[in-house]
Each structure stands twice: as structure tokens, then as C-alpha cells.
Protein: Cytochrome P450
Organism: Xanthoceras sorbifolium
Amino acid sequence: MLNIPSKEELIIVAVLLTLTAFFLPKAWRKLASNRREIPGQLGLPFLGETFSIISATNSTHGCYSFVRLRRLWYGKWFKTRLFGKIHVFVPSTEGARMIFTSDFVNFNKGFMKSMADAVGEKSLLCAPHESHKRIRCLLSDPFSMNSLSKFLKNIDKVFFERLKNLEEKGKSFAVLDFSMKITFDAMCNMLMSITDVSLLQQIEKDVTAVTDAMLSFPVMIPGAQYYRGMKETFEQARKRLMETFREMIERRRSGVECYEDFLQSMLDRGSCPSNEKLSDSEIMDNLLTLIIAGHSTTAAAMMWCVKFLDENREVQDRLREEQLSVTKNKSDEIPLTLEDVKCMSYGLKVVKETLRMSNVLLWFPRVAVNDCTIEGKCYEIKKGWHVNIDATCIHYDPDLHKDPMQFNPSRFDEGQKPYSFIPFGSGPRTCLGTNMAKITLLVFLHRLTSGYKWTVDDLDPSLERKSHIPRLRNGCPITLKPLNKMK
Ligand code: HEM
């Protein structure tokens, strides 16, 4: 007897065949392509692991403890959901290469809206590809090594005087407070020749309000009271800053004021065709951008130099020896020159090692603008996902840096593998202030080690809460002692 299947059985078989036809090729393609799922916990819709990263940021272990913990759970690659968005932490040189080299093509900067509100839509941090290229090109010249000799002379004088003053007082002071003040004043002087103390204080207060808002908005709930309060404060601060910049530009244009500085070099392009000069709003947004991008990063790196040199006395001694020999035929009052700075080869390695270990910018955020694959097509990244180039993980990878926890400037005697040392990023968005930051750090190290020894007065390693830049909570307090040198 032939067993004729029932109608229900036929429907089940048809459904099974359709499902197999749909899923089998996909599964086969995945198997054949060697593609792997990025591990990690996406958690609840929208919230995901948002509370965990907030709690890490509010702790004295710093926000990177969130990443460190997940690496222990899932391995190097992991994904998570934060504030409603999927984030992938990219830990490899190959991943970094792929993202840096397709910046603006497959990836864009994260948090565009809140950033544009804060620094302005003409800022380098927000401008679309074509205008970014143009603006960056027009801003670059004053940041070349040779254009920075006036900045070097000025900041050297300030370090010399203020360190001497602090030593004479004989009291303990926080290196972070010292470095924040000096870098801010020196940048405002280099950019706009501002030296008036009360104006500097007002600008610093307003810049801090704008920076806080820029970093906080992506993690705040619109409409909440705290959000409204912060938005109001930052809008007023930004308005005041723009007014100050506008008035300054007007005084320069009318000939009431004329200086040799960054702003003047931007305005002196007056007769150039419009594609070869910046509009006033482009100048103003980027003045603010440069201060925000350069101030707290450089100041934090200065603080970490002091901390690492205190913990590694033999490095400190070797650095002091080099610094004393660079200026052995000069009196202390004579300012350093670019030639002197170029002779500080061990000093430069100390700066690099400090940047490798301190990771002033922990990771560099991007958003995928297209579906793509990463790490030799191993991992799929979907359009809209956030990818964070994890510089900290790369800088502490034992396969790239031997004994990575060891502060060892001599590791830079040898060349580094591409994308294994990226404190200033890479590609079209690489840091515009690299030379300025290096000069500031080298001059600081010179004045500190060739003039003084110091003791760190509080060794507490706790990090500042709620800070996106790793900084010691106590600001690294030190007391200076003059060095008895024979010249
Ligand atoms: C130790 C100090 C500094 C560090 C570690 C640092 C690091 C970085 C990094 C990693 C980037 C790229 C971020 C990304 O790819 O998303 C960047 C961009 C930038 N930095 Fe720095 N920076 C420092 C100092 C400065 C200074 C002194 C200035 C200028 C006054 C500056 C101006 C900029 C600007 C304008 C950008 C954006 C470039 C663009 O998007 O085209 N930085 N910085």
C-alpha cells in the first residue's frame, strides 16, 4: 500500500525545505570564509552594559577598567552595547591599519552631533571629508617643526621662571595643576597672543565648560535636569568664546592690533582666493578645537613623565646626563633652540615611552558608514556600529612591546612595527599638534631634570574619577630641590 502523506505533513516538509534552502548557503558561506562572531554581551536593548562603563568611569580605576575586564572574559576582541549603540573594541595593528587607512571612506568620527554643538561644525573634528582636507591643509603650517621656534622660546622661558619660583617657595605642588596652567597659557599665547591674566582665566573657564559638555552629552539623557543645566552653561560659554574671538579678529582686521601668531597667519591670507583661506567661522571654530585638543592631553602627559621618572631612577639619571650635556656651554637664562631640542634623542625616547604607557587618549572612536570586514575579513562590522581603535591594548601587547609593563625608553632604539605605536593616531586624522606636544614635553623635561631633583609627596596610584583622560587623582604632588651642578 502506498502511504500518501497528509496535507499537514506536506506543509511541514515544505517549511523545512524552505528553511534549509535559506540558511544552508549562509552557513556554508560563513564556514568557507573563516568568519568568526565577535564575542561579547549586548545585554538589554538600548541599555546593554551602559551602567558598567559609567561605574568604571566614576571609579578610581578609570574607564579603561571596563575594557580590561571584558578582555579577561572574552579575549582580545569583544563587542558590547553602550548608550544604545554596538561598540567593537579593536585590539590589533591590522585592525588599526584598516580603520585608519579607510577613515572617511568606511568610517567616520563618533559622537558627531554633540561634538559639532560644542566645537562648531567647521571644526576639524566635525567637518566632512573635502572641507576637512582643505581646513587641515590651511591650519598645518604653524604646527610644522620649523614654525614652532617662537613657541619653543616662549614656553621655555615660562618653564624656567615658574619652576624656579616653585623651588624657591619650597612647597609641595601638584604637577597636574602646574602643567594645565602652563600649557593653557602657552597655547593661548601661540594662537592669539593673549597674555592678560583675567582674559586667560575667563577663556579657560569657558573652554572647560565646552570640553565637559562635549564629553558628557553622548552619555546623558536629553531632557534630564542635569543635561539642561549643562547645555545652558556650555551654550553661554561657547557664545562668550566666539564673541571674544570675533572681537579679536575685528581688531586685527581694522589694524588696531597686529601680532606675529597663529591667528595673524590665518588672517594674512586675506587676498588669497576663497579656497585658499579660512572663513572667520572656520578660524573661530578651529581656535577652540586646537585649545581643547591640545591642552589637557599635553598637560596629562607632562604629569605622567614626572611619575614614571620618579619610579625609574636610572632612566631619570641618564636623561639628566643627556640634558646637561645638551646645554653644557650655555647659561640657564639663555633659551633653548630647535637645534638643542633636536639633540635630545634620549629625551625623545622618554617622551615616547611615557605616551606608550600613559595612553592619554585610551582609544580612538569611529562609526562604520558601510558594512565591512576587518582583520583579514575575519570579523563583520555592520553599518552604524562603533569601532574603537584600542591604542591602550596595542601599546600593552607583549607580542609588540617586550615586557610592556616596564618603563623602558630604550625600546625605541629599534624601529617599531607599523601601527604598534599610535599615541597620536594615524592617517588623515593624525594629531595636528604632534610637534607642539613633543616640543612642550622635551622642554619641560629639560628644565626639570637639568635644574632639579624632586620627591613625589603622595604615591597614591588612584585615578581621577569621571575623567576620560587618565590622570592621577592627587595630580602628582612633588617638591623640587635644586640640582648642584658644576657648569
Ligand atoms: C600629548 C599630547 C597629545 C596627544 C597624545 C594627542 C593625541 C591625538 C590623537 C590620538 C589624535 C587623533 C584622534 C583620532 O584619530 O580620533 C589627535 C587629533 C588631533 N590633535 Fe592631538 N594630541 C596631543 C596634543 C595636541 C596638541 C598640542 C594639539 C594642537 C594644539 C593637538 C591638536 C589635535 C587636532 C586638531 C586633532 C584633530 C586632527 C584631525 O581630525 O584632523 N593635539 N590628537
